[in-house]
Amino acid sequence: MDLTPVLQAREAPWAKAARQDTALLDAIAHAVAGPFHLIYPERFAENLGAFQSVLRDHGVRGSVYFGKKANKAGAWLREVARLGGSVDVASVPELVHCLANGIRGEDSGVTGAAKSDDLLWLAARHGCTLAIDALDELDRATAIAGGDPPLRILLRVLPPNNPDSRFGLSERDLEAALTRCADCRDRIEMRGFSFHLDGYAVAPRAELAAALVDRCLDARERGFPASAISIGGGFACAYLEEGDWRSFQESLDPSQFHAGKRFDRFYPYFQAPTGAAMLEAILQSPAGAASLAARLSAAGIDLYLEPGRALLDGAGMSVFPVQGFKRNDAHGIVTVAGLSMSLSEQWKGSEYLPTPILVQRGPAREQTPVQAAVGGSSCMEYDVLTWRKVLFPAVPRHGDLLVYPNTAGYQMDKNESEFHQLPLPPKIVLTEQDGRFLWRTDER
Predict the structure, then answer these.
(1) How many domains does the chain have?
(2) Hey, is 420 helix, strand or coil?
(3) Which residues span the domain enclosing 385?
(4) First and final CA of the chain: distance in angstroms?
(5) N or C: which end of the chain has fewer CB within 10 A?
(6) Is the pLDDT of residue 178 over 80?
(7) How far is it, in rounded angstroms, from Cα 167 to Cα 234?
């Protein structure tokens, strides 16, 4: 049997305990009668607290904004409100959802390209901070702003290493934007600058952050408050152990995938540093004669950051009931209830590589390992949750459950669809009390 690397996911303690609690999974599966997502707000709170601690430890004022687009559940928002965090949104429904879950307007950041007038108006009414992406957007925001208090904005900078990005203001447009802000000081409060970089490298973020500190100091000489910078998201996560990830990369071959499927790219499933440790590395990076943290502190500039995936690391998993199994030459195909659109990596021309875990239900069976891909229950050939021929400890059968670990960050709902009129998998919120799990649906 040609075996591909195992790619066993790193699991948080709660996640391992929950998937091994067969009574819990059976009860939820019976109630839902289809696929579902498990989410664990306590782990999210731990991640958020770790980021906040790094800022405090370095004497840097700032705010950690949860990038809401990474997961739509309301349970995360209650944790943000409880811990004094912030949320980054890009639509009216996202902002309304935050307000309804206790996030104050002044703790909400509004990003995204070419924001609607309704979003600009609602953000202005609630004192949100807007990242301005274009001159015409600045003009519309100025017209909509009531002036009491002035609308708080950051000017989004075009990344110098990505001049073809469709986001951010060029040097010429930045100068024009500052001139317009100066002419409308009664309506606009120019609080500083922002950026967002693709990739997960520390050095480019630290370097551009230092450049924005300089921009703030220059803007202050022109009479602007310029008291904050935002370094966006892109905080890394590690789903696998380093050795497994390296082994996979070195042995990668289309024969490891159903139908010889080829992929141009994968998310880097092992990285370092990750999460709050990556923020630590950014703050410790040199910025002239001092560290970035020292420069921010000395200049009295707040640091905003917008992690989404990194706050959700280890905070959720997805569960799919097995519908059936069949042999296909040398490997098998498992069909599950649900669609691959509930595992979003598949719909970005890539593959979610952490190995799904088979939860065997019913009478005992022979434990003979079998390789299989995993398909969804639609009539589409490309509805495949796992193209890779993963090794299961026994033949999956109807009634089993297939658990995909660590899916809260971008996987659960980014691409979900009610194709075939199938209901979207509900999010089930897990909490612990007296040594056991309690569960409810996320409906906030």
Answers:
(1) 2
(2) helix
(3) 13-40+314-441
(4) 48
(5) N
(6) yes
(7) 15
